[in-house]
Structures are given as C-alpha cells and as structure tokens.
C-alpha cells in the first residue's frame, strides 16, 4: 500500500493498438463498429488448417501469408483467394506454430489457433521464429501504450499475460545488455500493472530471459509502494531481476542467476517499497538484497551460501529456505514449510499440446519443488480435455455450467463482469487465473452475494484471481458454507495469489461484510492481499469512509487453516478475525484504515476499546500460532485524534502463541498504543516489538459476540451443503 499521501488518479483506460488482437477471437474490430469474424480449424487426420473470415476491404483478392509465430521474422505467402475461406494443406508441423495474416487493400487480420483458444490478451513468443529482442520490445510497447507505465495503469481494466515458449538449441530470449535492470543499457523487460510473465517449459531453465524491471511511478521514480498487481513464474533470469514491487506481486518457480536490487535506483529520493512475495525460487550466484523494503515474505527459496542480512526494515520472514539470514529483530527464519502445494501453471508438453501442471501436496518442505531436469511431483492435465478456457466477456452462467460439467476453469486475462457468483461445487475443481484476471460485480446490480463461493469439498484450488466489487455484497470470496465441518486433511483446499479489493474506483456507496471468509477446515492460503483501498480515482477522506464500506478483510471459522504471506489493510473493524482452532499464519502485514473520522466512530468491544486490532484471535480459541506480524499506523484521514489500543489481540491461553510482532508509525498523528493485549509500548516513541506472547501478562480482551455473515444472504438457487 502507498505510505504517502497520494494524489487522486483519474480513471482512464487505453485501447490496444490496431495491430494487436481483439478482445474476442471471432470479433475483430478494424474501424468504427465494423468487425471481422475469424475462424480456424485444424484437421489432425489430414494435417491441414482451414481459415475463414468475414468480408473486409473494397476490392481484389485476399493474400494469405504464414509465419511460425505472431511476431515471426519471416512470413511467407501461402495463397491468394477471392473467397472468404482458405485451406493450408502444408502447414508447419506443430499446429500452434501457424499464424496467418490475411490482407486485403491496407487491412490485415491475424488468425491463429492460440488466439482462438486463449483470446487476445495472451501474447505468445517463440524464439524458434523470432529474434531475441522481439518479445522485449513487444512487451515494453504495451507497457507504454496502454497506461501501464504510470499511475493511470493502477486503475485500468486491461489485463495481459506474456507467455514464452521453450528455448531451442541453446538460444535464449536475452538480447544482451549490461548494468542494473533499471538502466537503459540493460535492455530489460518492463512489467506493468495487471501483467504476467510465464514460461511454457517444464522447468524454469527452459525459458531464459535477460533482465526484468518493475518501474515505480511515485516520488521521483524510486517509491514502489504502489507498484501492485503483477506476477512472473517458471522462467530463468540470466542478468538482473530488479523486482521493485509492493503488494499483490508474485514471483514463483524461478531460477535467478543474478540480482542486484529490489528497490529502484532511477530516482533520487524515497527508496522504499512495501512488498512482497517470492516462493519456490533458486538464486544461483548472488544473494539478493531487499534494502528499502518495509517487509517481505520468502518461501522455499535457495540462496548461495551465507547467513548475512539481506535488507528489510521491520518484518522479514524466510520459510523453508536454504541459507536464509540469521534470526534477529527483523528477520524470522522458519526451518520448513509444514504443508504446501505450489500454484498450478500452464506449459507446452513434448506432444505439442497445452497442459496444466498441478503440483502435489508436500509436507515439511525445505527448498524448491523442482530440479533442473524434473518439474516435480504432481498431475498433468490436458487443457483441451480437462479445462474450459474463459475469455473476457464470458458470463457467470457459462463458467458455472462448465464447472458443473466437470471442467476446470482457466481464466485468460480480462475483467469478468458477473450477474451471480462463480460457484465451485465439486471436489478437486480448479480456478486458475492468468494476467491478474478480475472477477467483478460490475456493472450489474443483480449480484448482491459475492464473486466466488466454494462449497465444502476436498482439493479445490483457486489461484491467481482478483475479486473486485462495484456493488454491495455479503462476501467477495467465501470458502465453505457456515457450519462446514468436513475433514479435508487428506486433500486440503488451496487458495493462492488471491487479491480482494474494496473501493478505489466506483463512485457510488457500497457495503461489503467481509472480503473473504474461510469456513472450511484444512485450508491452505499462499499469498493474499485483502485491500480496502486507501486511495483511488475517487475522493478520499471522510467520503471514502462512508462510500467504501467493509467490516472485515478475513474471517476464519474453519479449523486447521494455514496461511502463508497474509497482507490485509484498511478494513473498518477487525481486519483479521480468527475463530477456528489450530490456525497458523506465517507473515502478516497490515495498515489500519487511514480514514476513520473520529474515535467514537472507530471503537471496539462495545465502545470500551479505542480502534480495532489488526489481527484478532477470539477469546473462545484454545489453540493458535502465528509468527512474523507487522502493523503500521497511518492515521491521515482523521480529525487528528484517532488511535487504536492494540495492534494484536489474543486470549491468554497456554496454546495461543504469537511471535515476532512489530508496530510502528509511518504517517499521521495517531498511534498504535500497544503491540498486544495492552503491552509493548506505543508507536509514539518509535517502532515497538514483542518477540513472544504466550499466555502472557497482558490484559485479555473483553468477551464479545461477533457479527458474522449468515445463510440469509445466500441466493436461493445456490444449494448449500447440509
């Protein structure tokens, strides 16, 4: 989250250039409202490809050329016709290595199987047919042309993913360069808002990139506290990985040969960030440094030998890592990851078909899940057979019908407007988003329940999705019905790379009870950002307090819930409320709401306690353990007299334990008066830390009843479990 007072942004989106693909494979706009319909069919038996299109241009034949990829260096002429169809009887061997340009007069359309399958917000690169610098130039042109390079990009509805096919014969995608990734000489890929880079190989070294830079846009170009919503996975970085980011940024399954920094060197002030998350990654030659980052969560990474500090100010958690920093006030190395399943990912198999790899569950893991020659344990699913590929414009009805038919859902990048929740209603169902795909309650008024409801079933996976709300709802995402009690220990539910956003864009008032509620048992969460927006394109301050309303970021009622990398900010009551038994959280980051107007408005426990704790374990809980907890005071949109009594509140119980807690003040007059249960000291005199609270000497919070969502909020057509 931004730690500065940020000017209001105007909501503004840019259209893609004419030469890029359209939003739908069969609706290609060329000018005005005119559309060109396109279709491509591959005949496996005859090994030919049939093309068809609707009429365009004024006169003459249509000229058909073919290249091995969208940006191939050489397109060759394969035919000419006056008709609206064409058959290529000698296409390239791999069916996906056939991109056709159909040209008439000065108009050209591109037709390919990949575009027809995945839509136009997914861009594929193939080193077999393209020069090394082609992908970099193409991605960077998008960065500049659709608003992703500056503050306007934060609120765009554009979503995009860039997929790289495996290198061949020792080639790489690195066009060469030198210096840090932020320098012009580095020839870096600049990754913008709502963008994803994915390697289509089985292991990261199958796709070799040069350097990647995420460019901040605040305070002279060195403040990364609003560098959100982007991801990269399953690639090797050969030169420099300057991952200058904050919340909702995910780097996974990577091989990093060299890395110089995590904070930009292109500005002259404010070298800071509020990140971040990296997992399942191997650094081979240099130890990274998170200098300038307020906090960071790193899981199952391998570092070169050493144990020295690697930067960071307040809360650095290193879980299941090889050669992590030594433990100190800010650093919390945790020997192993007790239970984890890595995020599924898209790849191209040896048979030339698109597949999804679904990693297996692992316990007490140290280091990465893969090796140089082995993608790791897991299941391979054929995309065409097992999955429904959703594209922007698909409805909740189409998606829910596909789920009912037994398909998993691959969300291509897009902004999905829903009339009803997506209901995940069967065992082992998977929702997998690419390019920070957004499921959104806009513009319809009909959905008053939420974005995603998952029933209490084994093995469900929900990954890589942003839940947005422009209407009032009960939840944004709910896992298991109230009273869910099934035992999923043999096949837990996985939630990974999940963002919930309340406010920031819409102008009307909305009310949401909770961004996320986890009612099921045995749920594993791997990287959440739950965010009631502290800034946006709409007026802030008191107006935001009344317009963008949401009580809780996360409510947990299920037992045996384990969370890794939990970021929760600015909700109006308890930001995390934990009611289930044997819960565990490894890393927590929080800021309170900036905009509470006065203390009377913002008091808890029947008005007896100033403010609401960021992380609240209910007095009824007998067993809980969490480690690496940060809550930072930023009370700026207030009357100047708003504080909160406790950063954290837990019952005084022998089996309830919180470790490595930190509070401090970043901005504003208000303070967090105590770290936990009335002890630890006030942020008025600087950062405060409590190393361990376990059945401690602090004052146990008052008993209270919590206002939870109830079954009356459910739409009638959803059949809930008994």
Description:
The chain has 722 residues and is mainly β. The protein contains five helices and 49 strands. Strands 10, 11, 12, 13, 14, 15, 16, 17, 18, 19, 20 and 21 form a twelve-stranded parallel sheet that branches. Strands 27, 28, 29, 31, 33, 35, 37, 39, 41, 45, 47 and 49 form a twelve-stranded mixed sheet that branches. Strands 30-32-34-36-38-40-44-46-48 form a nine-stranded parallel sheet. β23 and β24 (354-359) form a beta hairpin. Residues 2-27 and 714-722 have low confidence and may be disordered.
Secondary structure elements and their pairing?
Blueprint lengths: L27 E4 L2 E3 L1 E6 L4 E6 L8 E6 L8 E6 L3 E4 L10 E6 L2 E6 H6 L3 E4 L8 H12 L14 E5 L24 E2 L4 E5 L8 E6 L16 E4 L2 E7 L6 E8 L20 E7 L11 E5 L15 E5 L11 E4 L2 E4 L4 E4 L5 E6 L2 E4 L12 E5 H4 E4 L5 H9 L3 E4 L3 E3 L4 E3 L5 E12 L10 E3 L6 E9 L3 E7 L13 E10 L7 E9 L4 E10 L9 H6 E9 L5 E8 L6 E3 L4 E9 L11 E2 L4 E2 L4 E3 L6 E11 L9 E6 L6 E12 L4 E5 L11 E7 L28
Key descriptive features of the protein:
twelve-stranded mixed beta sheet; 722 residues; mainly beta; 5 helices; twelve-stranded parallel beta sheet; disordered N terminus
Question: What's the quick description here?
Answer:
Helices cover 5% and strands 39% of the residues. With 722 residues, the protein is mainly beta. The longest helix has 12 residues, at 134-145.
- The SS-based structural class is mainly beta
Strand content: 35-45%
Count of discrete alpha- or pi-helical segments spanning 4 or more residues: 5
Q: On the 0-100 scale, what is the average pLDDT?
A: 90
Low-confidence stretches: 2-27, 714-722
Rg (CA only): 25 Å
Could you give a short account of the major beta sheet? 12 strands, parallel
